[in-house]
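Notes from hallway chat w/ T.B., transcribed later so I don't forget. T.B. wanted the structure written out for a chain they're using in a teaching module, and asked if we could keep both sequence and C-alpha cells in one place. Agreed to drop them here.
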Amino acid sequence: MVSLTTPVCDFGWKAPDFSLPGVDGMAWTPLDAMGPKGLLVMFICNHCPYVKAIRPRLVRDLAELKRDHGIHAIAIMSNDPAEYPEDSFENMKQVARDFDFPFPYVIDETQQVAKAYGAVCTPDFFGFNRSFELQYRGRFDASRKETAPEDARRDLFEAMKEVAATQRGPAEQIPSMGCSIKWKEA
C-alpha cells in the first residue's frame, strides 16, 4: 500500500463532466448530484484503511452538509476491483447500505474520471461551488489509518460550510492523505 498526499487546491478549476453507474441503479453526473450551494466529489473505496477510519464521520458530516447547508456529494470508486475484490460493485452496494450513504456511490470502471480529476488517493476530496469551480482540495480531518480524536477539527465540514455561505473555500487547506488509487495495468 502506497500512501500519498493530494496537491494544493487549484481555485476555480472546473469540474470535469462524467456519467457513472451508481449502486442505486441510476447513472449520475455532476449536475445530477449538485446541491443548491455546492458539490463535494470524492474518490473513496471499500478496502482502504484511511477511508474506513473516517467512514462513520463522513456519513454524519455529509448528511449534515446536505440537510443544513445545501452541499450535496457524490462518491466515486475508481480502484481496479479485479485486484481488490473488496472494492467490487456488489461490495460497494453492501457498504452503501451498511453505512446508509446519504450520497450516490458510483463506479469509475475505466478510471477515466479519476484521471480527469487528477485523483491520486482514497480519500481524495474535490469541493466545488454551485458554478462547479474548485474551492477545496484538502483532508477530511486529522485522521490517518486511525480515526482522529472525537474533538478533532472537522476540516472538510468547515470548508464546505464556508463554500455554502460564500461560494469560496478557505485559503489554508491541509492536503488529504490516503492509499494510492489502484490503477489497472496498461
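Follow-up for T.B.: The beta strands are 3-5, 20-21, 27-28, 38-43, 71-77, 105-107, 121-122, 124-129, 134-136, 177-180. Might be a good example for the class.
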